[in-house]
Amino acid sequence: MPELALPPPAAPVLLREGAALGVWRIDSPLHGGDGDSSGQWYRARHALAADQVAVLLLLPRSERAAGIMLRYADQAHELGQLKHADLAVPTDSGVTPSGQPYLMLDWAEGQPILRACASLGLRERLQLMVQLCELLRYAHQQGWLLAEIDPAMIWVDARQRIKLMGTGLLRMPDPSDPFERGMGLGSQPGYASPEALAGEPPSLGSEVYGLGALLCMLVDGRLPSMLGSGVDDVSPSASWAKLNAAEQFSLDALLHKAAAPYASRRHVSAEALADDLRAWLAGENHSALSLVAMPLSGVPAELVKPDPEPDSQLELAPRNWTPTPGRGRRLLMLSVLALGLVLAGWFGRKLLLPQAQPAAAVAAPATAQP
Which of 2, 26, 219, 322 is the 20 to 30 Å CA partner of 225? Predict the structure, then answer.
């Protein structure tokens, strides 16, 4: 089972129990008080309604935190209209006496997905990803996408249910408006798509890349950026020795597609990724296998090397045949030469062999001369 890389420990800035933040009172730290780069999590209670519980996210003082607060102020009303049992959205915000910004979110239980999956098998991890994709289906239907992928914002509760802390949700940019790019603040390092790093606005394609990177972490324990020249050059599923060659090859193909550096090669949406994950879990073919040929039975998946990434502007060639410069011309010349040799042999046989005599002459012996 691969090791999962957790965020490096950081010195948490703890709030004392009972500390007052507006109408909220700090109850206790969450996740054992562990620190992470996304901020500190606390359980809080409403001062005027003791039965009203919320999650407090204490953000570090940074430009990114300032951007998160500005974006929440801009879309707070619309976020409040999202109603889903597995989605926690910000409902309030403020600044501590020491100057640290914070967000209050709907109450949710659980722990970050990387920590929760440390004790889970492969199928359970993939089923969690299916849940996350289905939750994003709801967000898409409401006009939102997950612009920033951060494992610390994706929790798993005791029933192995996904809980998304929706601080990274963003209204889908209008593609018809060239000036609307969305207030995307970027995913955590390693989860941002190549086009996002190049300055492109958030999209369903960049969301899929982040999900593919998270999928690589859950399967292999590494991000695509940690895999040398790219995920296409390795077999992430090789860590799971109980998978047979066909299962490994199929899962690798799925991972290669989800985390492809070219947006045109990825799944078109989280919904399409969920369909492929369900197909793999059921032992069925999926869309990623249309780009690669399945190996012969018994061939180890690590011996099957995918072809180099084609230009995203070109039509995809079959993956089981890689064209090389001049190959078509050489094949044509060889074909013409072979045809010439056949014709030369036929004419040579006509010229050199004696002509056959009529049947009657062959049957009657020649008469001797007197």
Answer: 322
Ordered DSSP codes for 282-337: TT---GGGGSSPPPPTT--GGG-PPPPPPPTTSPPPPTT----TTHHHHHHHHHHH
- Nearest-angstrom CA–CA distance, 342 and 331: 17
Under the phi-then-psi rule, with left for phi > 0, alpha for psi from -120 to 50, and beta for the rest, what region is 190?
left
CB 309 within 8 A of CB 261: yes
Longest Cα–Cα distance of the chain, Å, equals: 144
359 in helix, strand or coil? helix
Q: Please name which of 113, 115, 89 lies closest in space to residue 103, comparing C-alpha atoms.
A: 89
CB 48 within 8 A of CB 158: no
> What is the CATH number that goes with domain 24-106?
3.30.200.20
Q: Which two tokens mark 119?
A: 């004790």
Judge if 24-106 and 111-303 fold alike in CATH terms. Answer: no
Residue 296 backbone phi and psi in degrees, to 5:
-65, 155
In the chain, the N- to C-terminal Cα span, in Å, equals 104
pTM over 0.90: no
**Domain boundaries defined on the chain:** 24-106, 111-303
Distance (Å, rounded) from C-alpha 253 to C-alpha 238?
Answer: 12
Q: Which two tokens stand for residue 60?
A: 């570090």
* Side-chain half-sphere exposure of 202, counting CA atoms within 13 A: 22
Domain spanning 111-303: CATH 1.10.510.10: yes
CB 16 within 8 A of CB 28: no
